């Protein structure tokens, strides 16, 4: 496991601090970010038999800070309806592109360090279960969202749609009856999806260094 170099932490903190004015842990700062095309694309994958959990180590400032605090190999969790990750979504800090909260993601956005990588897993899901997940994403998108930037130091949310990435993915699984371990969603960490899979529900698909994909 490669942790962020201590020499990069001051730079990461400065970069993260510049993003703080966009953040809010008390109100929603992101709304209707996904758009009509995202939901149409997702609907095309409702009949396929899996949903996907993506764990990644991207090299983003917030990600490096999380990795240092948790010691986890992967510091971000995303969700997708399809194996090509064309419908990948997550709660994130916006990465200087979008407002913090619920956003669509693309693998090229992840490549912020030479050894950036991701691991992809899948879970069997019916069309009905995938529709429940899509409905839940649509609800959050329409109501608004924010990224819970204080989650590292305080496990509390001031509004239902203020979350972190792992909480978001877990609650999607819960909504569809696919959660394979019991835990308070606010306590879920990225690596819990792997560490708590005692019954082998997750199917490993691949691990990729992102420089090989772009």
Features:
214 residues; alpha+beta; endopeptidase fold (from Nostoc punctiforme); 4-stranded antiparallel sheet; two-stranded antiparallel ribbon
Fold blueprint:
Elements: H1 9-19, H2 35-43, E1 50-57, H3 61-70, E2 76-80, E3 89-92, E4 101-104, H4 107-110, E5 117-124, H5 127-143, E6 146-147, E7 162-163, H6 165-175, H7 192-195, E8 203-209
Parallel strand pairs: 6-7
Antiparallel strand pairs: 1-2, 1-5, 3-4, 5-8
Helix pairs in contact: 1-3
Number of strands: 8
- Secondary-structure element series: HHEHEEEHEHEEHHE
Main sheet: strand order: 2-1-5-8
Show unreliable segments.
none
Number of helices: 7
CATH architecture: Alpha-Beta Complex
Separation of the first and last Cα atoms: 23 Å
Shape: globular
Into how many domains do the coordinates divide?
Answer: 1
- How confident is the prediction overall: mean pLDDT? 86
Give a brief outline of the structure.
With 214 residues, the chain is α+β, with helices and mostly antiparallel strands. The chain has helices at 9-19, 35-43, 61-70, 107-110, 127-143, 165-175, 192-195, and strands at residues 50-57, 76-80, 89-92, 101-104, 117-124, 146-147, 162-163, 203-209.
